[in-house]
């Protein structure tokens, strides 16, 4: 049995949340006592979903996980973690390119706050090709994405774009 560890943070823009994200969330929730999902707000990015819609979609997709909390914040992730007693960042990776990027981020975060560790989880193979960007791209061609996003997200995508299958 895996010993649970304190509080962790899984942060991202989640525009939209995918089954790959949900896989990392569910697996992390089994490892940590509390998992916060940090929805990042970037005023320079125009997303498909509004900030509030993303937060609400994640909440609806994780309602069955009693140790998961959806939060939002501005500023540096490590500062938020320090202020809220979070000692571990969770990152999901799909490929070697993701690993390289996440290692750079882990080193930077460690430089900014040596008390915060990063745990990198490989995505389950069946979700290894999914990204929010790719979901939006194939949706523009009316592709069937029902196996790639949670049911709640698919319904909102259909409503928002009149395309999702």
UniProtKB/TrEMBL annotation:
Q: What class of enzyme is it?
A: transferase
Q: Which keywords are on file for this protein?
A: ATP-binding, Coenzyme A biosynthesis, Cytoplasm, Magnesium, Nucleotide-binding, Nucleotidyltransferase, Transferase
What's the domain of life for this entry?
A: Bacteria
**Per its Swiss-Prot or TrEMBL entry, what cofactor is needed?**
Mg(2+)
Q: Name one GO cellular component term.
A: cytoplasm
User: Any keyword Aminoacyl-tRNA synthetase?
Assistant: no
- Molecular function, one GO term: ATP binding
* EC numbers for this chain: 2.7.7.3
Nucleotidyltransferase keyword on record: yes
Q: Which SUPFAM superfamilies match?
A: Nucleotidylyl transferase
Which residues of this UniProt protein bind substrate? 13, 45, 77, 91
Tell me the ranges covered by the Cytidyltransferase-like domain, including all copies. Answer: 9-137
Q: Where is this site: Transition state stabilizer?
A: 21
Q: Where does ATP bind?
A: 13-14, 21, 92-94, 102, 127-133
Q: Which reaction does it catalyse?
A: (R)-4'-phosphopantetheine + ATP + H(+) = 3'-dephospho-CoA + diphosphate
Biological process (GO) annotations held by this record are: coenzyme A biosynthetic process
UniProt-annotated location(s): Cytoplasm
Name the pathway. Cofactor biosynthesis; coenzyme A biosynthesis; CoA from (R)-pantothenate: step 4/5
Q: What's the subunit arrangement here? A: Homohexamer.
**Protein purpose:** Reversibly transfers an adenylyl group from ATP to 4'-phosphopantetheine, yielding dephospho-CoA (dPCoA) and pyrophosphate.
User: HAMAP family annotated for this entry?
Assistant: PPAT_bact (MF_00151)
Q: Per the similarity annotation, which family is this?
A: Belongs to the bacterial CoaD family.
What this protein is called in its record is Phosphopantetheine adenylyltransferase
Source organism of this protein record: Romboutsia maritimum
């Amino acid at each position: 049995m895996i010993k649970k560890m304190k509080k962790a943070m899984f942060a991202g823009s989640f525009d939209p949340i995918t089954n790959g994200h949900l896989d990392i969330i569910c697996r992390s929730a089994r490892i940590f006592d509390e998992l916060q999902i940090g929805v990042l707000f970037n005023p320079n990015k125009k997303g498909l979903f509004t900030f509030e819609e993303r937060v609400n979609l994640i909440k609806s997709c994780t309602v069955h996980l009693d140790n998961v909390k959806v939060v939002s914040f501005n500023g540096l992730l490590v500062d938020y973690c320090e202020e809220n007693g979070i000692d571990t960042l969770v990152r999901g990776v799909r490929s070697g390119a993701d690993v390289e990027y996440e290692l750079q981020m882990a080193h930077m975060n460690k430089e900014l706050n040596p008390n915060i560790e990063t745990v990198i989880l490989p995505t389950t193979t069946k979700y290894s090709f999914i990204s929010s960007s790719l979901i939006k791209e194939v949706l523009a061609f009316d592709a069937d994405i029902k196996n790639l996003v949670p049911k709640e997200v698919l319904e909102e995508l259909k409503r928002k774009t009149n395309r999702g299958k």
